[in-house]
Fold this sequence. Notes:
Helix content of chain B: 55-70%
Low-confidence stretches of chain A: none
Low-confidence stretches of chain B: none
Structural class of chain B: mainly alpha
Radius of gyration of chain A: 21 Å
Strand content of chain A: under 5%
Number of domains of chain B: 2
Strand order of the largest sheet of chain B: 1-3-2
Distance between the termini of chain A: 75 Å
Number of helices of chain A: 5
Mean pLDDT of chain A: 81
Order of helices and strands of chain B: HHHEHEEH
Oligomer: heterodimer
Structural class of chain A: mainly alpha
Order of helices and strands of chain A: HHHHH
Radius of gyration of chain B: 22 Å
Largest sheet of chain B: 3 strands, antiparallel
Amino acid sequence: MSARELIELIGPLFIFIGTIFTFLSAIGLIRLPDVYTRSHAASKSTTLGVLCTLFGAFLFFVITEEFVSIRLLLGIFFVFLTAPIAAHMICRAAYRSNVELAEQSVQDDLKPFLKEEGMKDQV
Amino acid sequence: MAFQMLLNFFLAFTWMFLKTTFTPASFLVGYFWGLVILFIFRSYFSERFYLHRVIAIIKLFFLFLKELVLSNLSVLKLVISPKLSIKPGIFALPVEVEKDWEIMLLANLITLTPGTLTVEVSGDNKTLYIHAVNIDDVKDSINGIKDTFEKAIMEVSR
């Protein structure tokens, strides 16, 4: 195998890693018990999976076609910024509509805090 | 920071006009000399020399990347392990950063940290409520990580 063929393998390698991460996050979605732990798996692994896939595609086009795709870089940036916020909003909405946690150990201040806030609304 | 950058651009354009070569290369050369001039006159600005802040932003970005990879590996370990031995819970974390964008960045970083996820930000921006997968072993180490994050963010905004 020539050196050029080896270099061309870098992009597909990234895509492969990204696919593995996405697949594992899908397994996490099935296995984990409640909304909050599931969104752990969904937010983190999917973010990295999508990032790796996009970056792999970017590298592939740079190496084989010598075409620098700014759109892919922008896509990476937007996913990087928005995926954690989406997970945060889903968790927040779930908590506010009283979705129960799985066998929780310490469930600190959030419940008292929300109760206090609710009292404020009533007054 | 914005003012110093604008000044640097202005100096670069002045350099281009003095040389009467309007190419990106001469812009870069002019930008570099403008940077040197700004560095010499740094004590006349009310803020820090802005390259410090740029370096802090780059450092923060690499911290982001590192944490993303680490957290993915931890989730991976959690998902693959044959028995789920998790103890989820929500704990409160008082924060010192004040501006809205700092809180946003901190919450994002915490979400991408191994085993933690921001659930709620209190109305007065003083407390973050964080959901942790394994609350026992995570709590201490997370405080350390959070210190580094908060320090890195403050390094940018200072």
